[in-house]
Design goal:
By secondary structure, the chain is of the alpha/beta class. It contains 7 helices and 8 strands. Strands 1, 2, 3, 4, 5, 6, 7 and 8 form an 8-stranded mixed β-sheet that branches.
Length: 206
């Protein structure tokens, strides 16, 4: 779920309104609604649907003219996108050269048993039927890692270095755990599983 900090990062990275922005994986539509209230022309998509202003369509099936968006945003969504390469190619087609793709991600490649054990210690009871090892294996079995996402994007985008930080407090257990997570990361007790970066649409052909 996007937090106020995530919203601030997105707004700071986007061009000024009234830019036309595509949000990939909009979920409940809160970020899209905030951007629209700030003057952006937002098209928010999610294959699962969501709020009335979120279009229920996978990225690959979005029917828009080439170069029709000024920028794009993907908040904890690219790790779910299938098929990844074809969808990223389509995303590149929708953006003009020089346009920004602003990414906030969960890196399942960094997620390990230490992180899973800490998260399970605060999660609801219905998650406790899995061990930390089982949880890690399950997530790594069906989510794309940050390395995979960045390698795939590199065919069409120049991606800046990711800035890593806390993420797990955003996954069901609540923002009050953020400070604890950050302290554990700083101490080397658990990995930083969050990452943010900006990718720029390159002049390479899609």
């Amino acid at each position: 779920m996007p937090t106020p900090e995530v919203h601030a990062f997105i707004r700071a990275a986007l061009p000024a309104p009234p830019a036309r922005v595509l949000e990939v994986g909009a979920g409940d539509g809160t970020l899209a609604a905030e951007l629209a209230a700030g003057g952006y022309d937002v098209v928010a998509i999610d294959p699962a649907g969501g709020a009335p202003h979120v279009v229920q369509v996978p990225l690959l099936e979005l029917d828009e003219p080439p170069g029709s968006f000024t920028a794009a945003v993907a908040v904890t969504s690219l790790h779910h996108v299938e098929p990844l390469a074809e969808s990223c190619r389509h995303l590149a087609e929708l953006l003009p050269h020089g346009a920004r793709l602003v990414v906030d991600e969960f890196d399942v490649g960094a997620y390990d048993e230490r992180a899973a054990r800490w998260w399970l210690g605060h999660a609801a009871d219905h998650h406790h039927d899995r061990s930390p090892a089982e949880l890690v294996a399950d997530l790594r079995g069906h989510l794309h890692s940050l390395a995979t996402i960045r390698e795939t994007l590199s065919a069409w985008f120049d991606a800046g270095e990711p800035v890593r930080g806390a993420y797990l407090h955003r996954w069901e257990i609540g923002p009050e755990r953020r400070g604890e997570e950050e302290r554990l990361i700083a101490a080397g007790a658990i990995p930083a599983t969050g990452a943010r970066f900006i990718a720029t649409r390159a002049s390479r052909a899609p």
